[in-house]
Amino acid sequence: MAGLFKKLFNRSQESGQEEIQAEEQEQLTDEEIEAINEEEIENEETVENEQSSIFSRLKNGLAKTRNNITGKLNGVLASFKSVDEELFEELEEILITSDVGVSTTLMILDKLRSRVKEQNIKDPSEVKELLKQEILAIMGESTERLGEQTPAVILVIGVNGVGKTTSIGKIASKMKNSGKKVIIAAADTFRAAAIDQLEIWGKRIGVDVIKHQEGADPAAVIFDAINSAKSKKADILICDTAGRLHNKKNLMEELKKISRIIEREFPEAYKETLLVLDATTGQNAISQAKLFKEAADINGLVLTKLDGTAKGGIIIAIKSELDIPVKLIGVGEKVKDLQEFSASDFVNALFEEDE
Question: CATH for 152-351?
Answer without folding.
Answer: 3.40.50.300
